[in-house]
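User: structure tokens for Glucose-1-phosphate adenylyltransferase, please.
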Amino acid sequence: MRAEISTRFISLLTKNTLALILAGGRGSRLKHLTDWRAKPAVPFGGKFRIIDFPLSNCVNSGIRRIGVVTQYKAQSLIRHIQRGWSFLGGQLGEFVEVMPAQQRIQETWYQGTADAVFQNLDIVRSYNPQYVLILAGDHVYKMDYGRLLAHHVSNAADCTVGCVEMPREEASAFGVMAVDENLRIIEFQEKPQDPKPMPGKPDKALVSMGIYVFNAPFLYEQLIRDADDPRSEHDFGRNIIPHLIRRYRVFAHRLHDSCVNMVDGVPYWRDVGTVDAYWEANLDLVTVKPQLNLYDKEWPIWTYQEQLPPAKFVFDEEGRRGAAVDSMVSGGCVISGSTVRRSLLFSDVRVNSYCTIEDAVILPNVQIGRHAVLKKVIIDCRCVIPEGLQVGVDPDEDRKRFYVTEKGVTLITPEMLGQRVHQVR
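Assistant: Done. Predicted tokens:
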């Protein structure tokens, strides 16, 4: 009976919630991967885009009123949402609605995350939500937002911040929340040299995930106040949250308490904001027991995907055998007489004969010529890899043509190969 009441309670909360996914950022640390697309539109995991994770979390949690706030080079993102996320029933008041920058309130584009919501305040108010859930559109994780909302209401909070536990030595790259024993936030630290530890966990710090729950009227008040402050950068993390901590009831919610399908009890959350982090998170999926379970039927990740034939492996001769080991290969791929190891191939990748592919993340619609050797690489959409190209063998030679990270991952785009791609990516 208790479980039934709890489930009913959460379903009412999610029904009365409007989610806003902030998807307007470029994500410059991803370098050339975001030259033609916003970070949330970057492909991930073989067939998804990064934004599919917060969108799927919303739908699976029972939140069916969702706005996606866009700005920077959003065409591929808008197209993806139109094609893959139009299945919600508008007649039932369910929707995924794109909110592009329109200069609705003033003659400027979005100045920060808070300003992005403020400039859409008339639209938000028209839906008359009881709660507003603010989400980042560029993180990879599985989370039941219903539990987050229930925690927010049970604390009688004005604002609740989604947080993830992180080793203190790694937390200095993020915004850190100092909390008391009841998880009430008492201080916010922006990328501190010495992050404050959690109560009872001296080796851990609580890092903001860029997830915020607000009581709707309270959010409106704070956005209007912030918009009138000429000293503000109009950002949730830098301005809104620090202002609230000293004056109102602001609590932290641990991802551990709402993460779905944890592996070995460890919650999964990744900010894939650098080329190295993006490569590592994708290749983690090809391991025997990845921390992110994409085979979970109870909490699926939804997306748009083309209708493609199954992957095919052809030729079985010595020195010319189509094979993939410890790899994920998506629909439409053809591995023709080549060997693929520890790699992730997105849809419609063609690998011609006598190639060696290792530790590679290959995005959709890539053609790889014969005798190519590609190791520890990311290859962007629609690249045509020349016959005999060797990458990952001589880093100094790679740097002359491509982008190579500090950890030795080589990023290749069509432009680096002297190829012009006119299609939206």
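User: Anything notable?

Assistant: The two ends are 50 Å apart (CA to CA).
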